[in-house]
């Protein structure tokens, strides 16, 4: 078959890059080519008009497909014109490094149209001087870094000529797309074991380095539209030698220097953090072809020590990354694609990337050409990678080797990281220390590591060296973490039984509340301060979404400083999704992981805490009404059908209307609050929305009467309207220390 007849479908990795690019700073990357002479923009246009034939995607646009016809495809663009992709930027004066970096970062930050092939070449000229430059920019959907280098190799001098007389070819028919998609799906179904093996390898890569969850720090903060770029250059042979002395790679040297530089930044801000976590891009390909671009990238989360002797930190980083290299390259890519595209479809991806706390920075490292390149006869003096960042990661790093030089770039939001120049200085100092550090067999103690802090006076010494990563950092699966934390809570703060509740305890309560508590069976029973409950039901994300069955377990302790741990396991598309809610010390956090391991969501903050405070009040009323007697609750506006309750924990005060069934001696039949918060459609913000839990199927359980079936309902504005998003059944409740499980 003629290779040109093969459909150029967007791969799942490509669609992930589109999903990440939602708004704000475009998800684009580029490379700055610094030349030994200026180039004529017209000459560049003529050359690229011929050379782009070797890179088909540079003349193609991404076309959507009809239903059941598979992923989008790249098709020849009949309206292609190189003039749309090449432009000139003229600088006043000579092309200084600062001027070139400013042009490059602005070019990468200018959004490219997806109605045509998303790339451009910016020819930079100056009023004076003997240098020239070209910035090549492309959207990440077009190619990853390896693919980008392959495309660059086809555009510079010396690339073999390409014949392409059939351009433009007609777009594929719907029938062909459908048959191709059906064949692809059948092939996947025919090899289910291969798919399971890929999931196993993906999870293994994400867990391989045992990267810790980084502590909260100012490295994760909101970013704006501005970007600034700085460059550090170092001799590649010297980096190779330093890496060899300590059993590592060039990438290990880069990562170690990044960890040290970020540690200095944090110390300058008055923060002491032992480790930060870098998300390191891992390509599934060691090389790519210009006619087969696309993306094939996984991630390797690596914990980076921020202080200690340079040599010791390098050896530790090398040990951790070696664990990741034992896995298939970029094994995590398929799983991450599926997870992030699902989250994007639910409208929550932007909120996640702007609030995540799993990584502190991103690091990319590419092996570029080792011999000098030329473009239209001009020698390429330097190749500078230009990366991008989004979400709440204001500082990222890139590295690219070219013709004996390793070029490192630091890209930052100057508003979120005004210390950018100090970070660059710290990075230079870290590299100098690593290159001078003796091998593990040397003991002369030369080249002590930098221990200063950006913006501080003096230095801080650490004599403890670098702690090795523990083989385990507590349970990895969220369900296992819940079991460990719940067991620790029961051991440290056992649910206690005090004096029995009497009628005197109810004397000062509004009559509807007193009647409800009598009906619940609290009189004559010991006071309780907590419980463990088993729950099952089903849950969904919206009124038209599919229901997902779930099982759950909850352990709660009440009092002045309540704690709530709730573990839920649901299934979507056959895959388990584990969710863990934690409320303790006046703060709430919710995490979700595919398979209990792969992070999908990690939310916390004031809005989450307020929402969970309403949930704690609801737990008191539904499953432990006797504990209301000792809770910080005030009652108002009593009437025959209910009462208003106001509950305070720390700085949070929430209110709810309790609806009581007058015909059933006061059973609690609904709990309605306007203080609960729900994520917006795009998952970016939380907004107050009425929330209720209609209750039914009240039963006597071990002498108490509680509702055993209920719903969680959002009262949303149109077009959603009011809809239940969760249906739950309370299967059992356990009170310690009595050790008696009371099944419903």
From TrEMBL:
Skewed-composition ranges (Low complexity): 488-497
InterPro entries on file: CAT-like_dom_sf, DUF6544, O-acyltransferase_WSD1-like, O-acyltransferase_WSD1_C, O-acyltransferase_WSD1_N
Coiled-coil regions, chain positions: none
Annotated metabolic or biological route of this protein: Glycerolipid metabolism; triacylglycerol biosynthesis; Lipid metabolism
EC number: 2.3.1.20
Sequence ranges assigned to domain O-acyltransferase WSD1-like N-terminal in this UniProt record: 13-254
Catalytic activity, reaction form: an acyl-CoA + a 1,2-diacyl-sn-glycerol = a triacyl-sn-glycerol + CoA
Gene3D superfamilies with a match to the protein in the record: Chloramphenicol acetyltransferase-like domain, Nonribosomal peptide synthetase, condensation domain
Pfam family of the protein (one): WS_DGAT_C
Region of interest called Disordered, as start-end residue ranges on this chain: 439-473, 488-507
Key words of the record: Acyltransferase, Glycerol metabolism, Lipid biosynthesis, Lipid metabolism, Transferase
O-acyltransferase WSD1 C-terminal domain mapped to chain residues: 294-434
Keyword Transferase: yes
Source taxon at top rank: Bacteria
Family to which the UniProt record says this protein belongs: Belongs to the long-chain O-acyltransferase family.
Identification of the protein by name: diacylglycerol O-acyltransferase
Organism in which the protein naturally occurs: Pseudonocardia xishanensis
């Amino acid at each position: 078959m003629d290779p040109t007849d093969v459909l150029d479908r967007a791969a799942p990795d490509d669609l992930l890059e589109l999903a990440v690019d939602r708004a704000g700073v475009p998800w684009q990357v580029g490379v700055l080519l610094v030349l030994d002479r200026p180039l004529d923009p017209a000459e560049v246009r003529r050359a690229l008009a011929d050379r782009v034939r070797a890179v088909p995607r540079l003349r193609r646009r991404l076309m959507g497909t009809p239903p059941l016809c598979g992923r989008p495809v790249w098709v020849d663009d009949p309206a292609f014109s190189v003039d749309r992709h090449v432009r000139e930027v003229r600088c006043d004066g000579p092309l200084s490094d600062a001027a070139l970096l400013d042009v490059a970062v602005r070019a990468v930050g200018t959004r490219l149209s997806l109605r045509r092939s998303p790339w451009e070449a910016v020819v930079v000229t100056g009023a004076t001087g003997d240098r020239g430059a070209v910035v090549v920019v492309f959207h990440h959907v077009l190619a990853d870094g390896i693919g980008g280098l392959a495309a660059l190799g086809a555009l510079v001098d010396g690339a073999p000529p390409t014949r392409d007389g059939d351009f433009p070819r007609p777009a594929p028919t719907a029938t062909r797309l459908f048959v191709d998609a059906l064949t692809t799906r059948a092939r996947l179904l025919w090899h289910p074991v291969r798919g399971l093996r890929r999931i196993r390898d993906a999870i293994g890569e994400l867990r391989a380095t045992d990267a810790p969850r980084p502590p909260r720090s100012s490295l994760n903060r909101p970013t704006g539209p501005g970007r600034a770029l700085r460059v550090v250059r170092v001799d590649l042979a010297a980096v190779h030698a330093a890496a060899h002395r300590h059993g590592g790679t060039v990438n290990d040297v880069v990562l170690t220097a990044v960890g040290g530089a970020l540690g200095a930044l944090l110390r300058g801000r008055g923060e002491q953090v032992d480790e930060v976590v870098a998300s390191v891009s891992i390509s599934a390909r060691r090389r790519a072809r210009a006619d087969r671009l696309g993306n094939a990238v996984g991630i390797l989360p690596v914990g980076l020590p921020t202080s200690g002797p340079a040599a010791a930190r390098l050896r530790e980083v090398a040990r951790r990354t070696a664990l990741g290299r034992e896995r298939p390259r970029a094994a995590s890519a398929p799983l991450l694609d599926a997870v992030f595209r699902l989250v994007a479809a639910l409208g929550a991806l932007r909120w996640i990337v702007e609030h995540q706390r799993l990584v502190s920075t991103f690091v990319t490292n590419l092996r570029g050409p080792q011999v000098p390149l030329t473009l239209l006869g001009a020698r390429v003096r330097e190749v500078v990678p230009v990366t991008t960042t989004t979400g709440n990661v204001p500082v990222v790093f890139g590295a690219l080797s070219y013709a004996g030089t390793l070029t490192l770039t630091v890209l930052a939001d100057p508003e979120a990281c005004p210390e950018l120049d100090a970070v660059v200085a710290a990075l230079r100092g870290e590299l100098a220390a690593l290159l001078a550090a003796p091998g593990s067999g040397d003991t002369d103690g030369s080249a002590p590591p930098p221990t200063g802090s950006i913006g501080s006076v003096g230095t801080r010494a650490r004599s403890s060296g670098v702690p090795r990563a523990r083989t385990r950092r507590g349970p990895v699966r969220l369900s296992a973490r819940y079991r460990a934390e719940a067991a620790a809570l029961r051991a440290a703060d056992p649910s206690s039984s005090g004096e029995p509740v009497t009628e005197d305890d109810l004397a000062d309560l509004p009559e509807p509340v007193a009647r409800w508590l009598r009906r619940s069976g609290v009189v004559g029973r010991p006071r309780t301060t907590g419980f463990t409950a088993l729950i099952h039901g089903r849950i969904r994300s919206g009124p038209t979404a599919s229901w997902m069955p779930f099982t759950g377990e909850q352990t709660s302790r009440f009092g002045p400083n309540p704690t709530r741990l709730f573990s839920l396991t649901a299934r979507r598309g056959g895959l388990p999704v584990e969710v863990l809610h934690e409320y303790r010390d006046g703060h709430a956090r919710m995490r979700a992981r595919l398979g209990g391991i792969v992070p999908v969501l990690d939310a916390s903050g004031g809005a989450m805490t307020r929402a969970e405070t309403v949930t704690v009040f609801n737990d008191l009323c539904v499953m432990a009404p006797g504990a209301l007697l000792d809770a910080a609750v005030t009652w108002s506006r009593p009437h025959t059908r209910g009462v208003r309750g106001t509950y305070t924990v720390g700085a949070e005060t929430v209110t709810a209307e309790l609806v009581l069934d007058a015909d059933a001696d006061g059973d609690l039949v609904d709990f309605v609050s306007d203080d609960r918060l729900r994520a917006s459609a795009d998952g970016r913000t939380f907004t107050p929305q009425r929330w209720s839990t209609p209750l039914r199927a009240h039963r006597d359980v071990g002498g108490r009467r509680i509702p055993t079936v209920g719903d969680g309902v959002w009262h949303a504005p149109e077009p959603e309207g009011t809809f239940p998003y969760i249906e739950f059944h309370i299967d059992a409740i356990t009170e310690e220390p009595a050790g008696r499980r009371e099944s419903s």
